[in-house]
Amino acid sequence: MSDDSDKGPSRRGFLGAMAAGGALAAGGARAASDPLITEVQPWNQLLGEGVDETPYGLPIRFESDVVRRDVPWLTADPISSVNFTPIHALEGTITPQGCAFERHHAGAIELAKPDYRLMINGLVDRQMVFTYADLERFPRETHVYFMECAANSGMEWAGAQLNGCQFTQGMIHNMEYVGVPVRLLLEEAGVKPEGKWVLAEGADAAGMTRSIPLEKMLDDCLVAFKANGEALRKEHGYPARLVVPGWEGNMWVKWLRRLEVGDEPWEQREETSKYTDVMADGSARKWTWVMDAKSVITSPSPQAPITHGKGPLVITGLAWSGRGTIRRVDVTTDGGITWHEARLSGPSFSKALHRFHFDVDWDGSEMILQSRAIDDTGYVQPTKDQLRAFRGENSIYHNNGIQTWLVMPDGRVENVEIS
Q1: For position 14, what pLDDT does the model report?
Q2: Which domain does 277 fall in, by range?
Q3: Which of 105, 124, 203, 404 has its CA 20 to 30 A from that of 163?
Q4: Confidence label for 331 from pLDDT (cuts 50, 70 and 90)
Q5: Is 251 within the bounds of a domain?
Q6: Where is the Moybdenum cofactor oxidoreductase dimerisation domain (predicted)?
Q7: Does 224 have pLDDT greater than 70?
Q8: Where is 384: in which H helix or E strand?
């Protein structure tokens, strides 16, 4: 049950303290005599760069730490590996393409638009091949969706492992995609009555292939060629990729080259030996495509400690569900003894990231931070113990258990688990 009686520090009190000219706390609002505001600084006196200094705008050098990172020991080779979105350093919900995580099985390839082809074959009335220019002539749609790797948080099944929000939850991004509904392409080819499944195949050396139910393809899947207003990046499948909203990222086939309609699933490597959930008894559960409701506090977190000392503190994070929108996010500062309803900020799109905030007046004492998401189906994000009671500890994929951060009196944060 949510307890929203603790509303945190008031805006009136915060602004009043600032107006008084005194610091709220160590590292808080500065006195009016601060030379950085009372004295002329170099940037007030010198001309800046011209408008054509960087034809494609780049982040300022002061933000050079906000980058994707990998874990070198996680995979044998970076060609078939993953890096992580710096979600601890971002705000809002849209992930810049340059920060959005990558997962490759044979490296990111260069495929030019003139060389791009998309075949539709199998149980169709007309086998067809589309060029990139052909795709641009179809009616297009724009949607904001999250994409989460099924292995996000996978290393945490047996306990707290990596000390960073980026590394525990960063196999996710949220972008505005523009593309052609797969439905229109399949209608052009004409699906035969016995068609029930679609095989999506990529053009990279991995030969990535996934079986997807025809019903899903006709519902909301896209062949996307733009993200966040520009062309896809090479590492995200340029010039065109498949978008499978709410379902595991491995199904979002990049460099999409073929859609084959069939009457049964193909049982490919990525849906048999991989991307299945190994249960406690050793059996493997297939076809667990949907990414269930999940959330994480991104700040404070191990890579975003509290540096300003006691006083007003903004606790913020992200929540998402592959089944729809997020209805509510609860936050606890005492490890689940009491829960408080957070404030959802910004737009709430279906199958997209939601930003939440919870404001507190931190007294410098230890906190055990957690968040739990509730989606519009009524599903409540489980604890890790609840998840393990059903699934055991053999899994790699679909870990949506509640994440716990321990905030220490000096502001440092660690990845922990509580029982």
Answers
A1: 54
A2: 80-285
A3: 105
A4: very high
A5: yes
A6: 285-403
A7: yes
A8: helix 384-391
Q: Are 242 and 253 in contact (CB under 8 A)?
A: yes
- Is the pLDDT score of 5 beyond 60? no
Q: In which band, very low, low, confident or very high, does the pLDDT at 73 lie, cut at 50, 70 and 90?
A: confident
Query: Which residue in this structure is represented by tokens 């060389």?
Result: 115
Copy the structure tokens of residue 367: 């906190």
Asked if residues 212 and 222 have their Cβ atoms less than 8 Å apart, the reply is no
- Let me know: does 175 contact 144? Beta carbons within 8 Å: yes
> Taking the CB of residue 53, how many other CB atoms lie within 10 A of it?
9
Is residue 309 one of the residues assigned to a domain?
Answer: no
The token duo for 253 is: 């086939």
- Nearest residue to 415 via CA among 169, 235, 211, 187: 169
pLDDT greater than 90 at residue 32: no
- Asked if 407 and 367 touch (Cβ cutoff 8 Å), the reply is yes
**Which residue blocks in 30-131 are alpha helix, DSSP H?**
35-38, 42-45
By DSSP bridging, strand 209-213 and strand 222-227 are unpaired
- 4: pLDDT confidence band, cut at 50, 70 and 90? very low
Find, among 325, 357, 171, 304, the residue nearest to 249 by Cα: 171
For position 198, what pLDDT does the model report? 98
45-61 average pLDDT score: 92
Query: Count of CB atoms within 10 A of residue 127's CB?
Result: 11
Residue 370 lies inside a defined structural domain of this protein: no
Report how many domains make up the chain: 1
* C-alpha distances out from residue 96 to 22, 79, 198, 312, Å: 37, 22, 31, 29
What's the average model confidence in pLDDT over 198-215? 96
Rounded distance between C-alpha atoms, residue 69 and residue 164, angstroms: 11
Residue type, 355: R
For the chain, the average pLDDT equals 92
- CATH code of 269's domain: 3.90.420.10
Question: Per residue in 176-195, is it b (16+ CB within 10 Å) or e — as a string?
Answer: bbbbbbbebbbeebebeeeb
- pTM value is 0.92
Is the pLDDT assigned to residue 332 strictly greater than 90? yes
Residue 45 lies in a domain: no
Q: What is the spatial order of strands in the sheet that 404-407 belongs to?
A: 340-341, 326-332, 367-375, 404-407, 413-416
Q: Is the peptide bond before 181 cis (omega within 30 degrees of 0)?
A: no
C-alpha torsion 34→35→41→44, nearest 10? 50
How confident is the model at residue 74, as a pLDDT?
Answer: 86
* pLDDT at res. 28: 54
